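Hey, resending since the last one bounced:
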Amino acid sequence: MQYELSNEVERIADEIIGEHLPDLDGRKISYFFIVNLDEKTGQLVPKLSKGKQVLAELDTDTGKKAFRIYKNNETTGAALWVYKHAWNLLTPDQRKALIHQQLCRLDFDLDSGKPSIIEYDVKEFSQIARLYGGWNADLDIFLKAAKPEPLFEWLNDAEAKGKVKVVKPTAGNGKVTEEAPKSDLSSLKQEVAKKRGRGASAGAK
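The structure tokens again:
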């Protein structure tokens, strides 16, 4: 694997931080491409984990840290690593969504400035969501806030072969509908921001 500093990812991240995540403004975050090449052909290939393509990785202290310190002369902060193969396949909106998703996982201690990584709001199987809808508070908020069409439905090639349209369950009743339920997105953002410990200003945007 090869690693490259990415001004492209940094530019998009700066826009997202300025618009949605002001609590990350001024924090030390480095942005890289991971160039994963096939050893035999030298061609750019995807990074797979358990049969699914990995889009990006976020870290504060991993084996890649030595490269980050060497390139940036820094010992604290976080790093976002984006796989170049996946990046080349993403649309501009998908790229923005990916970076925004990863930045939402970052939290910096107010006193020490030490970064940590937050777990995703929801871990769930699509089958459970289809059958039971928003059966818990986290999933209920997630489904209400979701757009009708997923950005990344192309990623799982095995599921995408059938060209099946992903439909959203109406939260709480387990029934399937092709329309996402209407919701007050402003209040949802505030509630999610409060749960994640974000400031009121970040949640209100």
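The CA atoms of residues 137 and 148 lie 20 Å apart.

Sorry for the duplicate.
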